[in-house]
Amino acid sequence: MDDRGISRRALGALAAGGAASLGLSGCDRVGSTEATVKSRQFPDDFVWGVATAAFQTEGSPEADGRGPSIWDTFEKQPGRIKDGSNADVATDSYRRYAEDVDLIAGAGLKAFRFSIAWSRVLPTGEGTVNPAGLDHYDRLVDACLAKGVTPYATLFHWDLPQALQDKGGWSARDTAKSFADYAAAVVGRLGDRLKHVITLNEPAVHTVFGHVLGEHAPGLKDIALLGPTTHHMNLGQGLAIQALRAAHDDLRIGTTLALQPCRVAGGPLAFWNRPAASGLDALWNRAWLDPLLKGAYPVLMADFLKGHLRDGDLKTIHQPIDFLGVNYYAPAYVNLDLGSASHIAPGAPPRGAELDAFGRQIDPSGLVEVLTRIRRDYGNPPVLITENGCSDPFGNGPAVLDDGFRSQYLRRHLEAVKSAMESGSRIGGYFTWTLIDNWEWDIGYTSKFGLVAMDRTTGVRRPKASYGWFKQVAETGTLPTA
Q1: pTM for the full model?
Q2: Domain spanning 8-475, CATH class
Q3: What is the set of active-site residues?
Q4: pLDDT in tens, 29-81
């Protein structure tokens, strides 16, 4: 958060309650960042896949009746995107989807997680369905199935229709109902073949970065939006799950959360930072896990939810799911900052820590920590790792094709996954982010996460070394030692 963030009173409740309820778990970890495994062989039915998102890949923003989304609006505002680019072309996957599916199948991957653009299906977010928009996803699902690739569709990956934002977006309760109607429209057309559906992608990121810090669309900086946005996304998810199950009783439904340990900056002796770390944990992790899997919000969220939480809402949110999607990149380090309105300030990773292109610690043990917490505190639900990956160094130069660093990153995090499985976690699959170097939100094309490079002039795709490495892992189910 920043100086415009949480009030002293609200954070005081978060800090005091958080320290008491969470103790030190997840906040003051020390030791090796590596995970150890007993066996390097994954089960035969383990799902190997790759993940993408519509706005980052599709391009063709006005094709076939698509309406504008909040990201179309945001990217056009001066200074919002680091390199001044836009996603009008992205990876051109709206037109080149068959080529992309060939790349996925060619890597021996059996699953493709993509997202559906809400404003292609319902250009204003509600009302009459646009059949031409659904035609694209109809073709994409069929292309996947023809190649033996199971489609996993994410319904909301941050690209809210602008027309709904104009009515208040996720801060308006009606958006939750509109989301359920949209979910029903998607499976009404695709549900005979599309059997794996993910409702939300990283709602904590969308809430905090889009509505509190203003760094993502819709670009708002209002701490008063934290409570209603969090609650209405949770409520919309519950309503959507009900709509999906009413439409088809054979769907496998889950959600995807960005989970991270919230650790004390400065090491375990920096006890003064523990309240801030616990408070961030409540806002970032537990505000989504607890209502979905326990049927209750953390007590620490009470002030933010006043006036928004109604009778029956928690029952609606507390829907059974078939899997929990976990996106993991790095732990968060947190300082207590008495000079700011929020009292929460970002902290630095430990001195000498290995860092990724974003300056975040590369720490596979954080993934073990997250998976252990899910197993221990949330009833050990089935889990899919729905995102994990790393970027090339930032810049506008060509992609690194001999990307051994990416293969090693994936290996180390897959060791973490296997270690958690050996401890009892029910992990059924791993989707790496991402297939092709894409448009990476507010930093544009300066970041490259793909297994495949793309010439932005010609659109030609070129597999990197990590593509071949991941292909070997997927085809054999065996994790190399190096």
Answers
A1: 0.94
A2: alpha beta
A3: 202, 387
A4: 435 789 999 999 999 999 999 999 999 999 999 999 999 999 999 999 999 99
